[in-house]
Amino acid sequence: MAEVTYYVALPFIASDDGVAAGEPTECFNPNAAVMRAEVLSRKDGYVGAVAFSRTGDPATGNFSDAKVIKKFGDVPEDLSAPLTE
């Protein structure tokens, strides 16, 4: 199967340990991911959001590291853990 790029908006919620990742939303393109992340960052219960992309082969499960497109609000400094799990 060919490589595909997924665009995602990932919100963050306040937790006892700082902030935690919420439910990701897959988007059609990078602009949609940015717009969705901005909306999520302003929604009650969320403290921030990030728009990112990942490219890879779903058949093999091999994906490149996530590439942050834009951050909104309070998000962790190190995004590698929540973006790759």
Q: Can you walk me through this structure?
A:
The chain is 21% helix and 47% strand. It contains two helices and six strands, in the order βββαβββα. Strands 1, 2, 3, 4, 5 and 6 form a six-stranded antiparallel beta sheet that branches. Strand 4 (46-57) and strand 5 form a beta hairpin. The model has no long low-confidence stretch (mean pLDDT 90).
End-to-end span in angstroms?
22 Å
Task: Count every helix, treating DSSP H or I runs of 4 or more residues as helices.
Answer: 2
Mean pLDDT: 90
Calculate Rg over CA atoms: 13 Å
Main sheet makeup: 6 strands, antiparallel
Helical content stands at: 10-25%
One letter per element, helices H and strands E, the order comes to EEEHEEEH
Number of strand elements? 6
Secondary structure category = alpha+beta
Give the amount of beta strand, in percent: over 45%
> What's the overall geometry?
globular
> Low-confidence parts lasting 5 or more residues at pLDDT below 50?
none
Features:
single chain; six-stranded antiparallel β-sheet; alpha+beta; 47% strand; 85 residues; globular
